[in-house]
Amino acid sequence: MKRFALIFLSVWALAGALNAQAQAIIPIYSFTNGPSGPSSLTLGPDGNFYGTSSSGGSFYSGGTVFRVTTNGALTIVVNFDGTNGWTPQGGVILGPDGNFYGTTTDAGSSMYYVYGTVFKMTTNGTLTTLAAFDFTNGAYPNTLVFGPDGNLYGTTHSGGANNDGTVFEMTTNGALTTLINFDYTNGAYPGAGLTLGPDGNFYGTTQAASVGYGTVFQITTNGILTNLLNFNITNGIYPGPLILGPDDNFYGTSESGGSGYGTIFRVTTNGTLTVLAGFNITNGNQPNNLTVGPDGNFYGTTVGGGTNDVGTLFRMTTNGTLTTLYNFNYTDGNSPYGTLLLAPDGNLYGTTTGYDSNNSIFYKVSPCGAVTKLAVFTSVEGANPYASLTPGPGGILYGTAVSGGIYGDGTVFQITTNGNFAVIANFDNTNGTSPVAGVSPGLDGNLYGITYAGGSNNYGTFFKVTTNGILTDLYDINGTEGIHAVNSLVTGPDGNFYGTTAGDGTYGDGTVFRFTTNGTFETVASFNGTNGTNPYGSLVLEPNGIFYGATAAGGSDGNGTIFQVTTNGILTVLTNLGYTSEFAYLTADPDGEFYGIISGNFFKVTTNGILTTITNTGPYTTASLTLGPDGNFYGTTPSDSIFQVTTNGEVTTLANFNYFNGDLPVGGLTLGADGNFYGTTYNGGNGSAGEVYRLNLSPQFVDAPMNQSVLIGEGTTLNATPLGAGPFWYQWLSNGVPVIGATNSEWTIGELVTNAQYQLVLSSVFGSSTSSVAYLAPVAATPSVSLQPNGSVMLSLATSTNFGSRLYFTTNLTPPIVWQPLYTNVGGGNWQYMDTNAAVVGSGRFYQLSTP
């Protein structure tokens, strides 16, 4: 007769609990805007040029003082940050003590009720604020000039007793005296500084008056002001600063008037004005200040007009013959402001402002009128990163900056997760410009990418860059092959790179292309409207060796398509999108499905084209989603937020940008080797030119502690895997009570506790989360059953020490089964029970051990 011992296992369901915490955006590197809006230049005692920029710099574009050599080496000497002034406008002047003096027109938020400052700066950049304007003594000071008494003299554009501006005197130790308050009858709103005349008096201009459109005035050092003349449209409107000519007369320009676009005039010390030349847009518009050249002629620039309508460089003889020497363009700078500087080498030097930092340049004009671009006023490390970062070996992240760099055409950079930053390559237009897309790692260990423009055809380049910074232009794209690649390349199953262009190609609707690492280019497929238009998103490679992607327009309803394309160019539309958007991206999940968000529609699509809208209330994004290790998707919005979305469409905003930690995160997130997300913003941050940031997630569980069945008398180990920004702290709980010494991600339990509930509290500096409850079900080991000679049955069992258990038996397993108590064990451990009743003939018995 056989005897049986049956073991029954109980399992409890998982009950989850997750504490919601605030997430933190941590800037780890700030891109700095290069000096923008450079002023007139001043020659320093070291033979270098010094000037100011009204914006740019390392503190929210508060402006800079910069130094530039004659060969174009640019150095920022001072960054204005609000505490030392903000927005310098007029350049600096060199004092007899070898120091520079200048003004700022604001003080930023750090100095309330301050309307400009006067500062002193040494050549090594030590800056001292000498005086501050509080509106009663003037507001928004113009350029300074030294008087014959060694004091500084200047004007303020407004403020003073009548809010029409002032003329002031200031000693070099900062004692400021108001000499005159303009009252509109004698002029108002001086837009330039003073000029010292041969008679020891100062001369200047205002841009308004009770009669006419500005004045020329004379003022003595003790404050006696004489109005010499009023402008009347015919002779000019809004005059600029005066310069003293070789004939001891004053020369100047008006912003408009005359024939409509400005004049050049001469005025004597007694106020006789003669218009010498006028501008007509063809030869320029809105002339700047004049400079006397080595030949005795006058040289200057215009803000606009000329062949390209972005400014000219001109020469004028003393009798008014005007000659255009150069027409500025967007490549060599545009919209020059300020005064040309005649240097000891006989050349003239100047700056252009431009519509962005890439068009603010430092240039030289030779005596024959040849213009040479010497330097670009831009951030040497790059500015305005657009694309997502690319993870590399050793936890290093690689990226591109659209602008900035040595040549102003963008950079390739690397950065570690703790913020160590380095530029590894600079674009110079010939090898590409504006790398909107990121870089992709090649199988050879190099980085590969594509630029938006530049190269010989100005449609972009395909480039290779080694991690030690050797950049090679492999191919110059032409319009027939596609233009405007904005997304990173994808490595195909054949080891080549694949990508998309948003425009041109055979039908003008974009292309799918292939590049080899040696620079061979081939169009794989062309979009024609019917199969889609404008594939802005990157391709996604699936394990079947086929690429998948989306277009922003085209297809049967004009709202875009989801397509697949093989490496031999067979392009198939899988489905038509019903969402209208400029951007369409796909992200693959491990199950072979694709997810994306278009205009707030969060959807999934299978490889055979079955499209399901999960929710239509999702966020608006301009980048692809990133799959997190927890199975959720993460993304950014151009409205300055980071979000999480689950596969069932539940959206959570994790963090928001506030300009100080970045602005306009147009690129997606990248999962770093440390388990954190990293990304870039196009603008904002300390330098106002973008940030590399880390998303410090509050702790979450990728893998929480799991329920287990444990053999009685044996121990087990509970563990968990965290997600978020570490370091992490751990504390295990038993029935809600902290377990002493259980402070690691793993906890080995030697003795089971009856009905215990186990949890883990996961903490970091960014918050804490408590895991779901994990239950441990005690399970008896299979008992040892031996038949005794007298027919009894000896049961040998093992249960936990001090762990009660009860032995049951039945003689029939046909339902309903009736279990009868046989023995109760209290002490646990290894124990035996002799069932003497089992010896009854024909009484087959079955046993069950229960742990109540």
Which SSEs are present, and which pair or pack?
Layout: E1 4-6, E2 24-38, E3 42-43, E4 49-57, E5 64-68, E6 74-79, E7 86-94, E8 100-106, E9 117-121, E10 127-132, E11 139-141, E12 145-146, E13 152-158, E14 166-170, E15 176-181, E16 195-196, E17 202-206, E18 215-219, E19 225-230, E20 237-244, E21 250-256, E22 263-267, E23 273-278, E24 285-287, E25 291-292, E26 298-304, E27 312-316, E28 322-327, E29 341-342, E30 348-351, E31 361-365, E32 371-376, E33 383-385, E34 390-391, E35 397-403, E36 411-415, E37 421-426, E38 440-441, E39 447-450, E40 461-465, E41 471-476, E42 490-491, E43 497-501, E44 511-515, E45 521-526, E46 540-541, E47 547-550, E48 561-565, E49 571-576, E50 587-588, E51 594-598, E52 601-605, E53 611-615, E54 626-627, E55 633-637, E56 641-645, E57 651-656, E58 670-671, E59 677-681, E60 688-696, E61 700-703, E62 708-711, E63 716-719, E64 721-723, E65 729-734, E66 737-738, E67 746-749, E68 757-764, E69 767-770, E70 774-779, E71 784-787, E72 793-799, E73 805-810, E74 820-825, E75 829-835, E76 846-850
Parallel strand pairs: 1-76, 62-70
Antiparallel strand pairs: 2-4, 2-60, 3-4, 4-5, 5-6, 7-8, 8-9, 9-10, 11-13, 12-13, 13-14, 14-15, 16-17, 17-18, 18-19, 20-21, 21-22, 22-23, 24-26, 25-26, 26-27, 27-28, 29-30, 30-31, 31-32, 33-35, 34-35, 35-36, 36-37, 38-39, 39-40, 40-41, 42-43, 43-44, 44-45, 46-47, 47-48, 48-49, 50-51, 51-52, ...
